[in-house]
Write a structure and sequence with these properties.
Hypothetical protein af1432, four-stranded mixed sheet, about 50% helix
Length: about 425
């Protein structure tokens, strides 16, 4: 790597982190500084007040972990050169640069409407901004960086270090999110995982058998964090509310920083204004519209509910663990929720009702995604085939199925549920 120690940053999770010269140049761009204004957990601070950490700190942390892992694998001969270590660090540094305001609360809207997730926006920023020039100046191909981020680089191990069941992205955000929410379920043994991480004969990430306990804890931590933080009923309620508000803004309001097409995003990137497209910008828009007498009553109601924590409140919970893929068309719970919505709509305004359904993967059996275990005889075995491990016993999926109603109509909805539906 070049110029290790060009800058030190103190991180609350990992302590002092060294940035190289090329990394510092990228961090100093307005495109990367934007991540200071995008919270890692979107609106989770409505439930966990300490969850105000950002995509900025997470990206720095992921870079640090990538350095630790990649340098170790380079010494073992699995990474070809220490120049590739720097390339992998840059991929970790930039992997989240394309997140939308409020991250996963808003991103599904653009993904569904325009096919643009944060990976696609990340590619647009890397290839269409001064970041491309910085990478080229220091001798790193921007297209190679994006290929690693998107998991399509020619070397599988390079992809897996950033996109697999036990990648540096997950390693950092699990422990960082646990620390900031105070949820101890997410604490994992990073040192043990990294010290036992190797590559098997097929070129896939693997863990030595003496690291199985740490790997089990990793999976258990992730499962509990999905349930208690990432898909907490109130967190999901406010993310759903914010997404609905954003959809109304997209359809009915014009704003220079509200991209409505891939071309709009391209223009924001080219002129640098995307640096202002973050959580604080959106909050400013919401406050302005809330105070505007010309704003529709429906939108004002939703914004008021979001700003003053009177958002969607759960009325029906059908979530459960499962080993099967969720069949949206034939699932009995989903059918029941839709039936309840039809009845509630007679008494409650449609925009005051929201259904949330998702199928969350807990354990992945694909060998290119899930780590393998190196047993004493050096044979590589899929983690799902280790009989004395708890991981094969874990559910493969977490089906989230919920019905929400705005807090202002929750009493009415629950009465209707009690008197007319149940």
């Amino acid at each position: 790597m070049n110029s290790v120690g060009a800058k030190k940053i103190y991180d609350e999770v990992h302590g002092y982190i060294d940035l190289t010269e090329v990394e510092l140049k990228i961090v100093d761009t307005a495109y990367f500084q934007r991540l200071r204004y995008i919270k890692q957990l979107a609106v989770a601070w409505y439930v966990y007040p300490g969850a105000t950490h950002t995509r900025f700190s997470h990206s720095i942390g992921a870079t640090h972990l990538m350095g630790l892992v990649a340098e170790k694998l380079a010494e073992l001969g699995y990474i070809y050169s220490f120049d590739d270590v720097q390339m992998l660090r840059l991929s970790a540094l930039l992997h989240d640069i394309g997140h939308t305001p409020f991250s996963h609360a808003i991103e599904p809207f653009y993904k569904d409407l325009l096919g643009l997730g944060h990976e696609e926006i990340t590619r647009m920023i890397i290839l269409g901004s001064e970041i491309r020039d910085i990478l080229n100046y220091f001798g790193y191909d921007p297209k190679t960086i994006t290929a690693i981020i998107e998991g399509r680089y020619r070397e599988p191990i390079y992809n897996q270090l950033l996109s697999s069941d036990i990648d540096v992205d997950r390693m950092d955000y699990l422990i960082r999110d646990a620390i900031h929410t105070g949820v101890t379920y997410g604490i994992i043994d990073l040192q043990r995982i990294i010290s036992t991480l190797v590559v098997d004969g097929d070129g896939n990430i693997a863990i030595l058998d003496k690291g199985i306990d740490a790997l089990e804890n990793f999976y258990l931590a992730r499962m509990h964090m999905y349930k208690t933080v990432y898909y907490h009923k109130t967190v999901v309620g406010y993310e759903t509310l914010l997404r609905r508000i954003y959809e109304m803004l997209y359809n009915n309001y014009g704003d220079a920083l509200l991209p409505k097409s891939a071309n709009d995003l391209k223009k924001l990137i080219e002129n640098g204004d995307i640096a202002l497209w973050h959580d604080d910008w959106l909050m400013g828009v919401l406050i302005k519209l809330y105070k505007d007498s010309l704003t529709s009553q429906e939108l004002r109601d939703l914004i008021k509910a979001f700003l003053f924590r009177r958002g969607y409140k759960i009325v029906v919970e059908k979530s459960k663990f499962s080993n099967d893929i969720l069949d949206l068309e034939n699932d009995d719970d989903v059918k029941e929720l839709k039936s309840i919505i039809n009845e509630l709509s007679k008494y409650v305004k449609p925009y005051e009702i929201a259904m949330f359904v998702d199928d969350i993967r807990i354990v992945e059996e694909d060998p290119h995604v899930a780590p393998r275990i190196i047993l004493g005889n050096k044979q590589s075995v899929a983690i799902s085939n280790i009989e004395n491990s708890i991981i094969p016993k874990l559910p493969k999926k977490y089906h989230v199925k919920r019905l929400y109603v705005l807090s202002s109509s929750w009493d009415i909805a629950t009465k209707i549920m009690r008197d007319k539906i149940t």
